[in-house]
Amino acid sequence: LFTHDATNSRLRELSLGYDLPVKSNLISALRISLVGRNLIYLYNGCKWFDPDVTYNTGANGQGAENSFLPGARTLGLNLKLTF
Question: How far apart are CA 52 and CA 78, in angstroms?
């Protein structure tokens, strides 16, 4: 009754980048990228918690459903200059 399916599939990381044309003697390449982590669940066996962020996984309460934090989603911008 108190056992939950922790099977999940998710899009862990996605990065989309574009190389901008550079006409400079100082900079040889310029790349800009959008980066996202933990964007979407493709499948989550237990709908109300994130199995990766459970409380007390190192002791007896493995997979306990209490005192867990919400999963973090991050979005970012990456700029890479090559000299």
Answer: 26
DSSP for residue 55: B
Sheet with 29-44, strands from edge to edge, namely 8-20, 29-44, 74-82
Residue 66: CA count within 13 A, CB half-sphere: 2
Are 30 and 61 a contacting pair, CB within 8 Å? Answer: no
pTM for this predicted structure:
0.66
50-78 confidence digits (pLDDT tens): 777 765 555 565 555 665 667 788 999 99
15 HSE (CA, 13 A, CB side): 9
Q: Please state the φ and ψ torsions of residue 53, each to the nearest 5 degrees.
A: -120, 40
Structure tokens at 2: 């108190």
